[in-house]
Protein 1
Amino acid sequence: MLKNRIELVQGDITKFGVDAIVNAANSSLMGGGGVDGAIHRAAGPKLHEECMEIIKKIGRCPAGEAVITCGGKLPAKYVIHTVGPVWHGGHKNEPELLENTYKNSLELAKEHKLQSVAFPNISTGIYSYPKGEAAEVAVSTAKNFLGQNEIPEKVIFVCYDLENYSIYKRLLNL
Ligand code: AR6
């Protein structure tokens, strides 16, 4: 059943021993603040090295796209780095770009046969996407993808702040 394939947790995503955690990165993939900084600090230099290799090949990672690296010293096996949209008021394709971050991350998980994927609340920190609207995009995109695909088996929404956690709780009827 679809419902058992989506979990909600409040916590620090760097602590999760899942197949992949998703990073809310920026186009340079060179680390930053928020969850990106926490992931790079916890994973160590191997993550940065792999990100540099990717950037050498592709130049930059545009908003909506996703790439995959090892998990370095994290308990997670892999990190999927995706770049959310900066919120400019909602008229610059932000919903579509945010949907693409979830879709492309899940596609990568499927390609690599990863069964469990944990997402932070992409774009809702430094990039200022309104939390309620971002959560609606995240939940509907995950539900659609899981409805059409058997892999990944499980999506875990990891909310760091209580406000996001409460929004997801209501949206997921938990
Ligand atoms: N575990 C889970 N979620 C977290 C953690 C954590 N350890 N730390 C923060 N969050 P943000 P963005 C939540 O700002 O808005 C970086 O500098 C946080 O509460 O990390 O996509 C990048 O390099 C919020 O709900 O990412 C980019 O430049 C969510 O993660 C830019 O920030 C996302 O907040 C990306 O901005």
Protein 2
Amino acid sequence: MLTAVVGINWGDEGKGRMVDLLSERYDVVMRYQGGNNAGHTVVNNRGKFVLNLLPSGIFREKTVNVMGPGMVIDVEHLTHEIDSIREKGVEINPEHLVISDRATICMPYHKMLDILEEQRLADKKFGSTQRGIAPVYSDKYMKKTIRMGDLLHPEELKPRLADLIEWKNLTVVGGYKHEPVSFDEMWAWLEKYAMHFIPYIKNTTTYLTDAINNGKSIMFEAQLGALRDIDFGIYPYTSSSSTISAYAPIGAGIPAQKLTNVVGITKAYSSCVGEGPFTCEMFGDEAEALRAAGGEYGAATGRPRRVGGFDIVATRYGCLIQGATELALTKLDILSYLDKIPVCVKYDVNGTMVDQFPSGVELTEAKPVYEYLPGWKTDISGCRSFSELPKQAQDYVKYIEKAVGCPIKYVSVGAGREEYFEM
Ligand code: GDP
């Protein structure tokens, strides 16, 4: 099996717990895009861990974890992430963590430019995570970044880095009127945080090809959701990478036709962090109650997330764009307090009813059209099969499945590892 596990909506769909659950079934777990701009919490018998960069199979001894060519890696962040895991007794070594020679290094000046730009934008800011992701991906496509494999050739890397910094300072000093980036500081940073990864760096395509030929199963773990995809998301309020399953073979370095299935993660209601169009958004007491029930506050910042009912229009689109072959529906238990369950069934775009996800100004102007399904008003966190769910909850699951056009295979009814069932 070569499976992509992806988000269907705006992110925070509860991917962490599904990925943790599913990763057990695969020999190799691979991250294929993004950087440390998102993450998830994994709770296991060794403690609670926040993973931003490492693939989520890192806690399983027999799983090989691969960081793919499509990733952008802040090696300082990765060093700290690994240290915090090692502190709790988890061994991390080159047998069990492989980093692509083609993965891009996210430098301190990328992070700095992210912050400078958000400061310049002031109240027009996008809500960037300020981890340097947009600047480093932009540089990648300008062909002006360094890659993990360059670390293997420091003598060639030095003059190249000097050239890159000279170019970068045109923007830093000329544009933002900031102190110039210093070559010596950047080189010292690479020596401190990057060079110790040399034993982990490999040609991951060769590695994966061998794994596939030997019948190993591989899970491709995406970060963020379909609606944050640079091409198909709510641009410009997207991430700077491709978050969709179609990018998995590219960001991983395997032939496109090898992927066997795509598990899409969607939540029983909607949430969205930061700015940008979020049509199904609810406000006031209704929103506050859902936010509190679902614990929808940013993992890092504690910032309240925007919330709304399940959005059929956005989720059907998410499934389509992801090519989802099966869905995991998370946090169904959160809706148990509601007398009636809100579902956004259509968008009203200036008086026209729309059921295809729009883009641009149409999306910004869309208003939600809500319908309500009967609630079940009882705790369902103990249910371990579909038949154990109350009738109204069964109807809700079946309704969503039909409306979005993709089979629901997993339903989670609590944060605990066992609190889910397969359909
Ligand atoms: P992610 O980044 O996609 O993993 O999503 P979040 O950052 O929003 O994390 C989801 C949170 O919800 C975590 O604290 C999970 O432990 C929790 N969670 C996941 N699935 C369920 C569920 O089915 N029910 C409940 N009550 N909590 C869940």
Protein 3
Amino acid sequence: MDANTRRIGVTVLGSTGSIGVNTLEVLERHAGRYRVVALTANTDVERLAEQCARFQPEFAVVAQTERAAELARRLRDARLDTRVLGGTDGLETVAALEQVDYVMAAIVGAAGLLPTLAAARAGKRILLANKEALVMSGRLLMDAVHRHAAELLPIDSEHNAIFQCMPLDYAKGLDHAGVRRILLTASGGPFLDIPLERLAAVTPEQACSHPNWDMGRKISVDSATMMNKGLEVIEACWLFDTTPDRVQVVVHPQSVIHSMVEYVDGSVLAQLGNPDMRIPIANALAWPDRIESGASALNMFEVAHLDFREPDLSRFACLRIAYEAMEAGGAATTVLNAANEVAVERFLEGKLPFPEIPRVIERTLAAVAAGEADSLESICEIDAEARSAACRLTDRGAARVQT
Ligand code: NAD
Ligand code: MG
């Protein structure tokens, strides 16, 4: 396809979220190169209608079907001819449209799996922010990508950094590429140094106040527990075809180095930049070219120094649990993801104390027989089973709030 003769068609799944909004900013900056074909939201029809007015997509999807009529009314009033679809079917449809070249997968959580899979099966370039899809069904998604010659480019800042520091033929294996280890950086989140006895009283607002990044609420809590880094270790194993023992987490509170790759000759390559998601988004949209992202340039004199620490697995039990789940293999990471989603949601609702999050996840992993994650059906079954087990265990954990 030649970008000079035809603009690249893009679907943005989860366009009303933090990654979605950043993506639209980059797309708008390069309107001569990209065309927005479809936008999607879960329930926020107001923001989706505004985005439709701005980008005039062919399609808009509201995942909660009962809100689709309201979007259709708003678009009619604004005299827009964007077609409105609803539900997961609608999400899958716009991920696989003929006129779509790239799909930004920026839905949060397990809800992103089916549309991301649809994009893979349609052979699209997938810009993957939705790490949960890989955590719950890495084998399935990677197989679909390979079988249908889709492209999977990481948006997660760490994985995008690793991608930028890897030789082009890394797909042949890390040994072939001369890579010894991946060094995955982590800010440590808002509770890196908080006294442990204060964790029981932290509020959702405190957990969502990330020191360096402005993100959606679920990933913000994941960053505070460091489950986010655990999910990212698993994500790195799938994306770069490696094992968890070759992914070392490095706590780096400034979030200036977004990750590194260590080679057998002792070289370490790093990607640096301001913490601004428009950088990995622009990288994956334009790859192998480079385009402006709108992010400000990194000022090394202001940064002045960079700190590194080893992660404390007793403080951040979620990171340890995620490593163990990846080492266990099969559907253990499907269970991990489901239990984490349930526990985080309850914490955000004020129904579960923060330190109970890893406990609920660990007990769910012990309670659910994970088995193999070899088909969509088995993954969906295990996901559902893990969610109901986690709900039961969460209610028990929640009882501790009152006592
Ligand atoms: P967010 O909560 O800000 O946005 C989520 C988007 O998904 C919204 O558009 C929402 O409408 C949609 N959505 C939510 N539930 C849905 C459902 N059930 N069905 C369909 N759509 C649904 O989240 P975010 O911070 O933009 O994160 C999105 C994804 O990107 C996550 O997987 C996150 O881990 C990953 N990510 C985010 C960042 C970041 O800086 N925000 C960085 C790296 C990775
Ligand atoms: Mg990240």
Protein 4
Amino acid sequence: MTLYNTLTRRKETFAPIAAAAGLYACGPTVYSPAHIGNMRSYLFTDWLRRALIFGGYTPKHVMNITDVGHLTDDGDAGEDKLQKAAREKKLDPWAIAASVTARFFADADALNIQRPEVVCKATDHIPQMIAFVEGLLEKGHGYETSDGIYFDIATFPGYGKLSRLDLDAQVAGARVEVNPEKRNPFDFALWKKAPREHIMQWDSPWGKGYPGWHIECSAMGLQYLGERFDIHTGGIDHLPVHHENEIAQDEALLGHPMVNTWMHGEFLLIDGGKMSKSLGNLYTLGDLEERGYPPMAYRYFCAGAHYRSKLNFTWDGMDAAKTAYNRLLAAVRAHRGGTGNASVEPYAAQMRDAVLDDLNIPKAVGALWTMARQPERTQAVYDAALAIDRVLGLRLDDAGPAAGQSGPDTLPEGIRALVDARQAAKANRDYPEADRIRGELKGLGYELTDTKEGVVCKKIS
Ligand code: AMP
Ligand code: ZN
């Protein structure tokens, strides 16, 4: 299996350090519901996790929940995102975190995203974070200011290696630093002293405060995956600050790298640009469902682009994905119970090679289509589709009609395909689409009835 390592900018053959492949995924910041861009990042991690399993590895997948310390500017200025949400909504930050986390997992389930082995909340690991910061201070990598403890990047020569930052050029042209106590504009907060109104705060050797966002992931990665582990993922926006800073903390404390492979998922764009609340173009999975697009159609939509490519979201694109997804389900299921001899092995090999080649999901879906489109109904095609679906996660096996069950085999091919497509839409809880197809069948002179024994399709006499 090969994976692209952002650190080396190369595809590398994956060789895990130990029997379990350690995978740390930066998790959601739970101040407001995840949008579909966030969910694209977790689909990427899910495909990675599934591909590892498919490749014969046993992942130990750890995902954090950021419920404190992530500031509005993603660096160390601004307000804690949870504190801000609590202030604006006049709610308790703990209650916001709990409800947003629950919703996150509901969305993840609806997208058929598998749960990590470990889900860890930042606020449950404050002692580990304090110990990490103390370790860095003991080794001379930090200093105290009036508002916190900062990492001193001058003490870590490797700073900037992930983002290939030319530090001297950057520092010379750096924006005016808002915090005059920082020695270098790239120094970053390990621990923040909390003003009285900051609701989430803990005792520490430096008074009451809360952890910096980056130290959270370093401390929890160390806790659950140890001093050296295999893979660390996140969205591409994490590369220049969050992950750069994690690397500095890890290596300054341990004296060696903690992570072998850094992987980053590209962004979902909307109409070619950034999603933002102010533009009113930020959608959640619930918004998609309200407009008639089931979550699994969004999974299929994301499967159409490699994780290292930007993906542009449009409603037309979503329409096409929904239709194609329903057709794919129907095409695959039509092979169930088939006795033909359609070819399987070349496609099975293509699909397997694609998913193990730096998660080339779109290529695997392409091969799946070619295989499933073959007219001869063949059980082995269905079996091969389900085998690759362990990685794709498209729920190709949901209860739907087997070949021959959607009515007598005497139904014309086109009608039968429509019946299958309608069953697939129903299984996918896409009821508007199921109804539309039923209407289309009626227009063609066929009546569909759902019975206890399954669906019956009859020519209207
Ligand atoms: P957050 O909840 O803000 O910490 O972000 C959760 C994850 O979503 C992170 O891995 C981000 O990098 C990622 N992310 C944020 N915006 C997008 C986007 N538009 N497309 C893809 N991933 C994103
Ligand atoms: Zn993180």
